[in-house]
Amino acid sequence: MDKVVATAAEAVADVPDGATLAVGGFGLSGVPNVLIEALYERGVGGLGVVSNNCGAMDSGLAVLLAAGRIARVTGSYIGANKEFARQYLGGELEVEMIPQGTLAERLRAGGAGIPAFYTPAGVGTQVAEGGLPWRYDGHGGVALASPPKEVREFDGTEYVLEHGIRTDFALVRAARGDRHGNLVFNKSSRNFNPLAAMAGRITVAEVEELVEPGAIDPDAVHLPGIFVQRVLALTPEQAADKKIEQRTVTTPAADGTVNR
C-alpha cells in the first residue's frame, strides 16, 4: 500500500517513447513540473499529451514542447504559448482542440470506464461536422483534418458523440497526499488534476505535503488512492517553486490611492 517513490527519475523511469500522457494543471496552477522535468532529463520523445494547455513561459509541458519531445496534443487552449502556435502552424505538431468542458468529461469518462457519451457542445460546428485542422502542411494548407462525429437527436435536441480518454500514464500535482495515494488539491488546481489522474492507467502524483495514512479526513479526499500508483514527495524548495504567469504591479499615488 505504500506507493511513495524516492525520486522523480524513479517515478517516470518506465515511460517510453511514444507514450500517451494525461497531465494535470490549469494555467500554471497545479502543474507537475518536477515530474515533467524528470521526463525531459530522460530524453523521452514522441509523446502524445492530453492536457488543458501545453505549458507557458519556460515551465510545465512547454519544457518538453520546446525540446521537440511532443508529437500530439489533445487540449482546449493554446493561449500565449508562441512556440505551441509555431509548431502547430508549421506542421510539426498534431493538435486536437476540444471544448474545455468536453475535454474534462472525456477524461472523467475514461477514468470511470465510460466508453463514450453524448453532449450538445459543438453541435452545428466543425467539432461535430469535421474539418478542424489537426495538422498543417507547413505551407498554410491542412494535411490532416478532424473526421465527422456521430450526431443523434434526443427529445428534440441534437447531441454529438464524444469518446472517453484513457492514457498510458498520468502526471498530476497535489497539495497533500498520503502514502496510499489519497490526494487533496488546492483551489483551481482541482480543475483538471483529478480528471487527468483518473484517465491514466498508471498515475504518478507529486505532492507538496506528504502525510501518513489517516491524516487526511476521508471527507476531504478529492481523489482516492485507487486511481494513483506512485507518489513523489516534493522537497520544500520544489513545493514553493510556483511561477506567476501575469504579474501586475501597483504603486501608491500621492493621495494614497492605488494606481494600477
Automatic annotation (TrEMBL):
- Keyword terms of this UniProt record: Transferase
Keyword Transferase among record annotations: yes
Signal peptide (from-to): none
Which InterPro entries does the protein's record reference? 3-oxoacid_CoA-transf_A, CoA_trans_fam_I, CoA_transf_BS, NagB/RpiA_transferase-like
| GO MF entries | transferase activity
* Keyword Zinc-finger tagged: no
Q: In which domain of life is the source organism classified? A: Bacteria
**Record's family?**
Belongs to the 3-oxoacid CoA-transferase subunit A family.
Official protein name in the record: CoA transferase subunit A
Q: Which organism is it from?
A: Streptomyces siamensis
Lineage, opening ranks? Bacteria, Bacillati, Actinomycetota, Actinomycetes, Kitasatosporales
